[in-house]
Amino acid sequence: MTTIDATSEVFMTAFRALPKKTREAVLDKMLSDKEFREDLMDAAIIKQRRREPSRPLEEYLSRRKKS
Questions:
Q1: Is it the case that residue 50 has pLDDT exceeding 90?
Q2: Considering the entire predicted model, what is its pTM?
Q3: How far is Cα 20 from Cα 2, in angstroms, rounded to an integer?
Q4: What whole-number distance in Å separates Cα of residue 67 and Cα of residue 59?
Q5: With the C-alpha atoms ordered 45, 8, 27, 19, is the resulting torsion angle positive or negative?
Q6: Could you give the CA distance from residue 45 to residue 28 in angstroms, rounded to a whole number?
Q7: For the chain, what percentages of helix, strand and coil (3-state, to nearest 5) are there?
Q8: Which phi-psi region, left, alpha or beta, contains residue 3 (left: φ > 0; alpha: ψ -120 to 50)?
């Protein structure tokens, strides 16, 4: 396990141990930060689409110009 994995595991364990209202307050604080919220949405999209086949950038740009 890497240091990053261990740190994230400790963080999640501590977060889950918090009372529900405190967890909600922490999430609310995190999501009120615009840059963090955008990073979180990007990470979710990447994880969701990770198994999609890739395509060349030129193909994407060509299709984008057509629309």
A1: yes
A2: 0.64
A3: 29
A4: 13
A5: positive
A6: 20
A7: 80, 0, 20
A8: alpha
